[in-house]
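Q: My labmate handed me this sequence with no annotations at all. I'd like to see what the chain might look like in three dimensions before we decide whether it's worth expressing. Could you predict it?
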Amino acid sequence: MKMILPIFVLSLLFSSSYAALQDFCVGDLSAPEGPAGYSCKKPAKVTVDDFVFSGLGAAGNTSNIIKAAVTPAFSAQFPGVNGLGVSVARLDLAPGGVVPMHTHPGGSEVLIVVQGSICAGFISSANAVYFKPLKKGDIMVFPQGLLHFQINAGGGPALAFVSFSSPSPGLQILDYALFGNNLPSELVEKTTFLDDAQVKKLKGVLGGTG
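A: Here is what I predict for the chain of 210 residues:
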């Protein structure tokens, strides 16, 4: 786990230049999250535990259809990053695991491979494709909002840590956006050029209806 430290260093590269009016704004998780994040917890109620997160040391549960698990340390789990423009997460990929095409509308991402091999890439808004197999110690950046993916490219488990330029980067997985909801199959077929059987098969796999 000696590779965990660099991810926090990388996070600092993403930090925005704030003319801070206060030292920090620990998120008040008892209040709803707004477009600018959580409201600040009263300073008298802030403790050192608000600035420490211990959830990235254990592997996530990869017993799912994509054989992958993401353990986030975003503002909702780690209130100390609220308002600071940074967050981190752990990515576990079992053999055959994949994080399908997805986007983070709220921030850019840096990934560092700690164990195994991961094929990762993204697609630009001009539809240029950038992908490469990554090994232990390799780092790749994914610009904000662009579709990107990660695939376990080895025969054993893979582990990576990721840093985001937002305390709440958001997530939309393309496959689930198309086939994991109640968007009528007819509309999916027209917008994807897939036939009815293919759409219904994918909806069945990903839990969609309609």
